[in-house]
Fold this sequence. Notes:
The protein has one domain (21-185): Glutaredoxin (3-Layer(aba) Sandwich). It has a four-stranded mixed beta sheet. The protein is an alpha+beta fold. The chain has helices at residues 5-25, 67-78, 101-112, 131-140, 174-185, and strands at 34-36, 42-44, 52-58, 83-89, 152-155, 161-165. Strand 1 and strand 2 (42-44) form a beta hairpin. Helix 1 packs across helix 5. Residues 5-26 have low confidence and may be disordered. The termini are far apart.
Amino acid sequence: MAWSRRTVLAGVAGFTALAATRANAGNGNAHDFTFTSIEGERLPLSSFDGKVLLVVNTASFCGFTRQYAGLQSLWERYRDEGFVLLGVPSNDFGGQEPGSAAEIKSFCEVNFDIDFPLTEKQHVKGTEAHPFYAWARTSLGEGKAPRWNFHKYLIDRRGDLAGSFGTSTRPEDPALVSAIEGLLARPVG
Length: 189
């Protein structure tokens, strides 16, 4: 895969700007939040302390749903190195995730062989947004909030926001892969 200079520079610039924003946010980190798994169990993000985490709002009936395949590939490629991918189904954009937890889980397993963790369906925008998403929006600014399905937040091993990647950033995008690899290369602690 050829990386264009523009793609790499855009990724570096975005990562640098985000680091500066994160340093000024000073309002906790991702490990302060808890989701409920798609199976109905508590899923505290603190359980991923020491791991690199990619949180992605997903939808089963979206033009970007094919990204599930790339997300699964990322998970398989890096999970043994301390990487966790967390899918957060949401019906906030175009009503493209209307199903129940059981239907969402079945769709993901049958169509994309997904085995990375999924949460229960959540709001990711507006006043009803899950507290994690409200925190990320406050920390990074409205411009880094999800505008559609498959927005990606990258969290470092300490629980700090380390990147925000919009819907059109595919899981195999060099800027995203480079950011993940860079965080995995840093020592734990």
